[in-house]
Amino acid sequence: MADETRALRVVVAGAAGRMGTTTVQALALDPDFEIVCAVDRAHAGESLRAVAGPKAPDIPIREKFGVSVDETKPDVLIDFTTHASAVEHAASALRRGVAPVIGATGLTQHDIAELKLLSEETGVPGIYVPNFAIGAVLMMRFAEMAARWLPDVEILEMHHDRKLDAPSGTAILTADLIAESRKCVPTPPVTQNLKVEGARGGVYKDIPIHSVRLPGLVAHQAVLFGGKGELLTIRHDSLDRSSFMEGVKIALRNVRKLQGFVVGLDKILFKS
To answer: Are 87 and 118 in contact (CB under 8 A)?
Structure first.
């Protein structure tokens, strides 16, 4: 267990990516954190300061995760790599006593189950966070509440055109929460003439999800609940990546206090 009186030692994986550099810049300005290691295979050997900006520590970006962690001894991991790399890094971190915070998207139920099992075996906690924005976490909580009374619902999620997966992890988690909360599954609307295949979106747990990918977008989601004579829309918009940074810091500060491997920042924000 790390000394609570000193700065939290952090390894940033995917440090040269868009979320990675934003995270490096945010942590570098906060005395509660010390970036001791940066991993990014595409930029290995380069200076983190040269890649992420003048406030970043002047340390080399490394290629291999496990060896780098062994040498730099971080307390926590923040990972914004790809799905496959993030799962590999999280497992490696858990085996080394480093608590992982996974922000990479696309983890499957199988991935999560495996990480939960490994967390139990090692006694090291961790968290997978589909969305670090505080407003997005509140949106999901409000949608969970609304589903008890308005079971007819569809989800519209919109992201930038470089996002690799669809639907988003936020949409999947929102649908999971709604499915657990609503008291009944409504009869789906009758579509007599589906002129374009997929026009009604993909269906997950009896909830239609519509994914939009366009340049100019960052991360946006609207949850639409229909009732007799009314429509309730719960919407969140991330206008730039700075919206995620407070959630990243909250996750890093609290991940080692968790029990096991959990999913969602709400497990920290709403912990009683």
So the answer is: no
Residue 99's domain spans which residues? 8-128+242-269
pLDDT at 203 over 70: yes
Supply the pTM of this predicted model. Answer: 0.87
Q: Is residue 219 helix, strand or coil?
A: strand
CATH number of the domain encompassing residue 168? 3.30.360.10
Catalytic one of 43, 89, 159, 220: 159
Read off the pLDDT of residues 103-152 as tens digits, 9 standing for 90 and up.
998 889 999 999 999 999 999 999 999 999 999 999 999 999 999 999 99
Q: Which amino acid is at 104?
A: A
The answer to whether 163 is a known catalytic residue is yes
Residues 143 and 156 in one domain: yes
Based on the fold, state whether residues 101 and 171 are members of the same structural domain. Answer: no
Q: Do 101 and 167 share a domain, yes or no?
A: no
> Is 159 one of the annotated active-site residues of the chain?
yes
Residue type, 124: V
